[in-house]
């Protein structure tokens, strides 16, 4: 049985808005203190485009609730109340890097219109997202997310997970251009713009990203990132209680540009100032969109009556800043109510047709399709492959595993200008001296970051998206827990983007010791193994060198590879006294074309009566 659509709050307000446009009576939503639309530098074309983006945003939100009520739509987190933030899109260049909070749809629509994309295709693609069609160009039916284009990065609805990679991209675009890398993807003067809601500023990932951005500025590194924060006073059901103001005063050392989020011209002014500050100074800034109202609740399932009274709900519902901007545009002679009414009606029809069509498109319907998206396809490496040569086939002297590890990273950094090695103590040699001496040879590509695994993995994501191939050193397997959210985001981005947003990288960490050094916080062996992650664990230096060559090649192809090193065998020279079959040192495979792929295993001994399959320090044991 079909629900009574006309009784939905969103449809009631849609009809009211329609009647106000038809009757030329939107003036009661305008405010006398709002700036003239073109007073801060916006052109008439920019004003009208932002209005269209806002109107599209409003109608997409309303139709998503209708679609959900009819059982055809599956995503209802809505942006109503924040339609005028599209003016921030006008302050950005088309080549600036953007990662948008899920409520900031109007910025996304504005940028798409500005880039020349047709309104029909914009609306159809959004309808596909709401109905999780497998033809959705952003997620392929795996989610509903913003982003997906060359300069607009996919954002899931995880709190603030978009922030650390945005800082990484800001650092990465400066590094890749500074090194004149052919793989550099973005202009040297681009800005990385990332937005969150007022509730998200409390999240550890946002705090970590702000800390890194300000740390970079403190060190004199170029980090042109802009944090956009929208303040509607409530995080799902938790009221803000004025905390954001205190947060900004106490926690942010960067310049903060504030504006009235219900005033299009003021949004454009503050956004322009924040963005141009970051661009010219190469330093972080923030823009805060204040006084917003969250209309209609967080999502269709939101039980607002449980935490807001009826007057609060009614008041928020009736605050239509978009209508006020329409009235002001008419008063200033930029358009007419007749033109706006026709636009509203045409958009309503287009969005309805698009949702109907999108709801009939195929969904992800098979396990095979799900699995196929887990990671980028394995790259075919046109190198010498097969079983490793025996040690005596090389003229190299045997050495301990750690020396071979250092040598292969030296070799790969020398061969590939886009390869970077980052960690917490890697400049002086890192844990167990694996990077000993590499910083002197590659001073800009072997770099230390503050000891925070969230920002380390987030920076690696940003570096990867900026055209580099990062190796991330995590000291111990236990420390991966501290960056777990960012780790999962890095791995699962390929799945949620249907292969459109890979984050190729190699993650190095220590594990598999005897469990007696450092206790749980250094040597525990419990690891996350999400789908889409390649995991390798080598037991000797020769295999490590050949395997790391292959792992780096796969990271360059967009895969996430994690190498778990065994502390116990890094410097092992001999087996236990009870063993008689030789030492544990190997010769380095000097032929750089010699690799060890994920399918090949080393076999010790010729006896076929017993097979023990193991890895790491299980092999010498």
State the helical fraction: 25-40%
Characterize the main sheet.
6 strands, parallel
Q: What topology, given as strand order, has the largest sheet?
A: 9-8-10-11-13-12
- How far the N terminus sits from the C terminus, by CA atoms, comes to 67 Å
What is the number of helical segments per DSSP (H or I, 4+ residues)? 19
Mean pLDDT: 91
Question: Can you tell me about this structure?
Answer:
It is a single chain. The protein has 621 residues and is of the alpha/beta class. It is 39% helix and 10% strand. It has helices at 9-23, 44-69, 86-91, 105-114, 119-130, 163-178, 204-219, 243-251, 264-281, 310-318, 321-331, 337-359, 367-372, 401-415, 438-441, 453-465, 484-496, 520-523, 541-556; strands at residues 97-99, 192-197, 225-230, 234-235, 238-239, 256-260, 285-290, 419-423, 446-448, 469-476, 505-511, 533-536, 560-566. Helix 14 packs parallel to helix 19 and helix 16 (453-465) packs parallel to helix 17 (484-496). It is elongated. The model is unreliable at 385-389 (pLDDT under 50).
Descriptive labels:
six-stranded parallel β-sheet; 10% strand; five-stranded parallel β-sheet; elongated; 621 residues; alpha/beta
Summarize the structure.
With 621 residues, this protein is an alpha/beta fold. Helix content is 39%, strand content 10%. The chain has helices at 9-23, 44-69, 86-91, 105-114, 119-130, 163-178, 204-219, 243-251, 264-281, 310-318, 321-331, 337-359, 367-372, 401-415, 438-441, 453-465, 484-496, 520-523, 541-556; strands spanning 97-99, 192-197, 225-230, 234-235, 238-239, 256-260, 285-290, 419-423, 446-448, 469-476, 505-511, 533-536, 560-566.
């Amino acid at each position: 049985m079909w629900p009574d659509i006309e009784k939905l709050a969103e449809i009631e307000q849609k009809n009211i808005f329609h009647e106000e446009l038809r009757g030329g009576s939107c003036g009661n939503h305008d405010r006398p203190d709002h700036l003239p639309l073109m007073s801060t530098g916006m052109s008439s074309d920019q004003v009208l485009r932002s209005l269209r983006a806002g109107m599209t945003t409003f109608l997409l939100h309303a139709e998503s609730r209708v679609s959900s009520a009819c059982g055809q739509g599956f995503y209802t987190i809505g942006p109503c109340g924040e339609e005028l933030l599209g003016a921030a899109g006008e302050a950005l260049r088309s080549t600036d890097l953007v990662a948008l909070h899920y409520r900031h749809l109007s910025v996304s629509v504005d940028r798409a219109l500005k880039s020349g994309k047709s309104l029909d295709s914009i609306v159809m693609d959004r309808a596909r997202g709401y109905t999780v069609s497998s033809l959705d160009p952003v997620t392929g039916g795996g989610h509903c997310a913003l982003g997906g284009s060359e300069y607009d990065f996919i954002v899931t609805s995880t709190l603030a997970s978009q922030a650390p990679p945005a800082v990484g991209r800001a650092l990465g675009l400066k590094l890749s251009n500074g090194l004149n890398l052919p793989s550099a993807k973005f202009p040297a003067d681009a800005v990385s713009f990332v937005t969150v809601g007022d509730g998200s500023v409390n999240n550890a990932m946002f705090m970590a990203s702000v800390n890194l951005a300000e740390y970079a500025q403190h060190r004199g590194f170029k980090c042109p990132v802009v944090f956009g924060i929208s303040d509607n006073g409530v995080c799902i059901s938790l009221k803000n209680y004025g905390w954001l103001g205190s947060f900004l005063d106490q926690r942010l050392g960067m310049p903060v540009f504030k504006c009235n989020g219900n005033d299009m011209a003021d949004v454009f002014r503050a956004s322009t100032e924040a963005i141009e500050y970051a661009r010219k100074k190469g330093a972080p800034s923030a823009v805060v969109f204040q006084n917003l109202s969250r209309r209609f609740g967080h999502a269709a399932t939101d039980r607002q009556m449980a935490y807001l009274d009826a007057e609060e709900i009614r008041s928020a519902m009736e605050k239509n800043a978009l209508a006020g901007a329409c009235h002001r545009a008419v008063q200033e002679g930029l358009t007419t109510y007749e033109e706006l009414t026709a636009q509203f009606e045409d958009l309503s029809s287009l969005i309805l047709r698009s949702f109907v069509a999108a709801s009939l498109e195929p969904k992800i319907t098979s396990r095979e399709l799900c699995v196929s998206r887990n990671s980028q396809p394995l790259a075919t490496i046109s190198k010498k492959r097969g079983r490793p040569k025996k040690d005596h086939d090389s003229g190299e002297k045997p050495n301990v595993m750690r020396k071979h590890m250092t040598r292969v990273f030296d070799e790969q950094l020398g061969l590939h200008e886009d390869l970077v090695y980052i960690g917490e103590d890697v400049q002086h040699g890192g844990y167990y001296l694996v990077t000993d001496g590499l910083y002197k040879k590659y001073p800009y590509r072997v770099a230390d970051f503050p000891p925070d695994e969230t920002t380390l993995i987030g920076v690696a994501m940003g570096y990867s998206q900026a055209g580099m191939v990062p190796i991330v050193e995590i000291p111990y397997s236990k420390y991966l827990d501290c960056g777990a959210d960012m780790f999962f985001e890095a791995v699962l981005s390929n799945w949620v983007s249907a292969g459109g947003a890979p984050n190729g990288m190699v993650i190095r960490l220590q594990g598999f010791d005897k469990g007696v050094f450092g206790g749980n916080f250094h040597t525990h062996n419990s690891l996350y193994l999400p789908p889409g992650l390649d995991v390798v664990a080598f037991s000797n230096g020769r295999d490590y060198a050949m395997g790391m060559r292959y792992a780096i090649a796969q990271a360059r192809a967009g895969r996430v590879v994690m190498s778990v090193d065994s502390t116990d065998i890094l410097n092992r020279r001999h087996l236990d006294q009870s063993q008689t079959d030789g030492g544990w040192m190997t010769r380095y495979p000097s032929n750089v074309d010699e690799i060890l792929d994920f399918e090949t295993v080393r076999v010790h001994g010729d006896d076929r009566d017993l097979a023990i399959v193991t890895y790491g320090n299980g092999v010498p044991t």
